[in-house]
Amino acid sequence: QVQLQESGGGSVQSGGSLRLSCAVVGDTINRYCVGWFRQAPDEDRVHVATSHGDGAADYRPSVKGRFTVSRDNAKNTLYLQMTYLRPEDTAMYYCAAEECTPNMQTTVFDYWGRGTQVTVSS
After folding, report:
1. How far is CA 11 from the centre of its chain?
2. Inter-residue contact 81 to 17 (CB < 8 Å)
3. What's the rounded Cα separation, in Å, for the pair 57 and 43?
4. Going by C-beta distance under 8 Å and a sequence separation of 6 or more, which residues neighbour residue 65?
């Protein structure tokens, strides 16, 4: 069974940058649509970005233009480059995956990592 291992979280000041990584273990990343979600304290988990099987990417509106999702098939890793971070980006960030054909997009994910914390101070 595929496992997802996030890393790269930390504490930064407003306006700073971080890059999150999600290592896909036990299978090949190009068999999956992969995405990022986040959950702030006392809030629901929300979608942040997805790298679909057809190569398309989508983002929640509040991060569009600041965050970039990408994947490195050779390293079997998904990334989330986050720039111009704001205090409201503070959350636990989770990597998620769903089996995908190359022409597929999805909004449903069956596999989840344990998360990495991002804290942005003003």
Report:
1. 17
2. yes
3. 24
4. none
